[in-house]
């Protein structure tokens, strides 16, 4: 198949999401598919682009300096980039589009109507917007999501909970959780004088529950906590917390050698979600590191190397002794790779994904735009785009 993989993501830092997508595409290419990785980005730094893929094209967002307000500049700049992307894909004559869920932009209407499109759903987008965006952004997203659903042909959700959000829609849907390329030969664990815990996250994402990691550190002074990503706040001065800032893959891998327990998302309830499969947790596990989480992890829930402290506000407060016992029980140990690898291996997940894409593509012989799609909106799109 000739597949276009679209992602709306600024390539200006080392990104786990970008690595995840590049790994998937690499597997698709190894299975004989022609994949065109199309990235809508702003202020792109080329050193962070994947260099192991055959077809990578960046559609840079223009500055739109003549528009008032940062929000308008961003939205209409993104719209222009998606317009350029649409023209590119029509000339390329791809069989199917696979895109990571993002907000709606005007050129998507005609593009997704004319080429069979599958949307990957990684989060409860509207609940997330309530936490991070303005009311106007939330309204645009809610309205735009309805338009997207009318244009696409299928959905790949990373959890059953997210798949159920679309159960009323007449769309083919499959659930495939996140995975990673498993590491067969992980560097030897280096036991430290005190148990070491790590949290890898992104600033500004309240559902990560970073303040709860600080609470752990305060109440468990015998452990050392490593924070990767978020910067040190002025009001946090615990001696047992080390802030590393952003680390590249090599430096993070070196740090993982010393880690006893990884910490995942702790406040997922803020997004009205109870299930997840974060990449950072799979990365911990790929190194044989047991994890503490505050949600149901769809691949490893109930395993003895996972401590689920519950998905509610007081989950850390209520489980300090359980956390202490869990860390102490794994201090100096690693998870058996033969147990964890089959649960998180990306290769097996991608075989399932490609089967879904192929089957959906075969079932869509005629593009939607040729089937009773003649209305004013369609005419305007075809005229101006």
Describe this structure in words.
38% of the residues lie in helices and 17% in strands. The protein has a 7-stranded parallel beta sheet with strand order 3-2-1-4-5-6-7. A 6-stranded parallel beta sheet has the order 10-9-8-11-13-15, with helices on both faces. The radius of gyration is 22 Å and the shape is globular. It is an alpha/beta fold. The protein is built from 13 helices and 15 strands. It has helices at 16-30, 70-92, 108-114, 125-132, 135-151, 160-164, 210-219, 249-256, 279-286, 320-330, 337-344, 346-363, 376-384, and strands at residues 2-8, 34-41, 56-60, 96-100, 117-121, 154-157, 172-175, 196-200, 224-228, 241-245, 261-263, 275-276, 291-293, 296-297, 306-308.
Mean pLDDT: 88
Going by helix content, strand content and strand pairing, the class is alpha/beta
- Terminal CA distance reads 26 Å
Strand arrangement in the largest pleated sheet:
3-2-1-4-5-6-7
Uncertain segments of ≥5 residues (pLDDT<50)? 365-385
State the share of residues found in helices, binned by percent.
25-40%
Tally of alpha and pi helices = 13
Oligomer: single chain
> Which radius of gyration do the C-alpha atoms yield?
22 Å
Order of helices and strands: EHEEHEHEHHEHEEHEEHEEHEEEHHHH
Shape call: globular
Total strands: 15
Give a short account of the largest sheet: 7 strands, parallel
What share of the residues does DSSP label as strand, in percent?
Answer: 15-25%
């Amino acid at each position: 198949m000739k597949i276009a993989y679209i992602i709306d993501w600024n390539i200006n830092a080392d990104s786990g999401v970008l690595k995840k997508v590049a790994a998937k595409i690499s597997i698709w290419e190894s299975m004989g598919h022609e994949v065109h990785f199309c990235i809508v980005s702003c202020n792109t730094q080329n050193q962070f682009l994947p260099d192991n893929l055959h077809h990578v094209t960046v559609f840079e967002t223009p500055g739109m300096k003549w528009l008032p307000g940062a929000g308008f500049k961003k939205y209409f700049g993104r719209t222009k980039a998606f317009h350029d992307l649409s023209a590119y894909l029509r000339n390329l004559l791809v069989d199917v589009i696979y895109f990571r869920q993002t907000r709606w932009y005007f050129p998507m209407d005609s593009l997704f109507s004319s080429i069979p499109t599958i949307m990957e759903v990684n989060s409860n987008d509207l609940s997330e917007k309530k936490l991070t965006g303005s009311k106007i952004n939330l309204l645009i997203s809610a309205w735009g999501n309805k338009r997207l659903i009318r244009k696409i042909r299928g959905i790949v959700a990373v959890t059953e909970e997210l798949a159920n959000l679309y159960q009323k829609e007449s769309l083919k849907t499959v659930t495939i959780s996140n995975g990673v390329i498993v590491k067969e030969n992980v560097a030897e664990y280096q036991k430290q004088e005190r148990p070491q815990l790590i949290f890898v996250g992104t600033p500004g994402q309240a559902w990560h529950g970073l303040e709860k990691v600080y609470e752990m550190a305060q109440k468990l002074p015998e452990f050392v906590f490593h924070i990767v990503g978020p910067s040190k706040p002025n009001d946090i001065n615990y001696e047992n917390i080390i802030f590393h800032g952003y680390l590249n893959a090599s430096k993070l891998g070196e740090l993982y050698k010393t880690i006893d327990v990884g910490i995942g998302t702790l406040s997922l309830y803020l997004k009205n979600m109870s299930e997840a499969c974060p990449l950072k947790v799979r990365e911990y596990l790929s190194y044989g590191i047991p994890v503490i989480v505050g949600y149901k992890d769809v691949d490893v829930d109930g395993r003895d190397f996972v401590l689920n402290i519950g998905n509610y506000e007081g989950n850390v407060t209520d489980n300090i002794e359980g956390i202490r016992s869990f860390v102490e029980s794994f201090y100096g140990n690693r998870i058996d790779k033969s147990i964890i690898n089959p649960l998180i291996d990306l290769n097996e997940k991608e075989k399932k994904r490609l089967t879904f894409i192929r089957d959906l593509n075969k079932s869509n012989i005629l593009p939607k735009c040729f089937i009773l799609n003649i209305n004013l909106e369609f005419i305007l799109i075809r005229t101006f785009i």
